[in-house]
Specification:
Layout lengths: L4 H27 L7 H8 L13 H24 L5 H18 L1 H8 L12 H14 L8 H21 L5 H15 L4 H9 L9
């Protein structure tokens, strides 16, 4: 006999809730820079049974890695929806950079998860780095950016972005729009854009960001 589909769906939903609760607890700990916590502390924070942890993750390290991945997924979906409105790859890069800086005020916990992952987040296969690499290469091929090794360019732009996010996190009263647009201008100049072009791309109106 096959299992009752309704019962199976109920089990699936319960498993999904447990997994999401564990990921939420992990993101909270990561946003606070607390990675030395025990699995018991994680399950307590998630309000799930200790034994249920191993139904979803093999280790704490796997959970934390998946928590970073899920935070980057939130960013990626939001970013991809916004930049789909643009054709110029340099403008796509600029809009993406400006949008990301503004996220520090919109979803600070997610941003802190990324910040506390350090520069290694720029080496991951999802989220910030692959999108920046794609945009930079496209802008170079279109003659909008000067030639530069894409990996070096990603690390240069990514380092500037992470530094900006860290500064905004440390200065809650700072003008996030002004600081982000200023950093965007300097990164565009670093990639060889003229002052006039960089100023235009770093100050043009942005589309509304989705509600979070």
């Amino acid at each position: 006999m096959t299992a009752d589909p309704v019962a199976r769906n109920r089990v699936d939903r319960r498993r999904e809730r447990t997994r999401n609760a564990l990921l939420g607890a992990a993101r909270k700990f990561l946003s606070e820079g607390r990675t030395a916590v025990s699995i018991q502390e994680i399950t307590d924070a998630a309000d799930v049974g200790f034994g249920s942890f191993y139904n979803h993750f093999e280790s704490k390290e796997q959970l934390f890695d998946e928590a970073v991945r899920s935070a980057l997924q939130v960013y990626s979906e939001m970013r991809d929806g916004i930049v789909s409105l643009y054709d110029d790859p340099a403008e796509v890069f600029a809009v993406s950079f400006r949008m990301t800086g503004r996220l520090q005020r919109q979803i600070p916990q997610m941003v802190r998860v990324i910040l506390n992952s350090g520069m290694s987040v720029l080496l991951r296969d999802e989220g910030l780095a692959p999108r920046a690499r794609h945009d930079i290469i496209a802008a170079q091929e279109a003659g909008r950016f000067e030639p530069m090794d894409p990996n070096m360019a990603v690390m240069a732009a990514g380092g500037a972005l992470l530094g900006l996010l860290q500064l905004l996190d440390a200065q809650p009263d700072a003008d996030v729009e002004a600081r982000t647009d200023e950093m965007t201008f300097h990164v565009l100049r670093m990639f060889g854009m003229t002052k006039r072009s960089a100023q235009k791309l770093s100050s043009s109106p942005l589309p509304p960001q989705p509600e979070l």
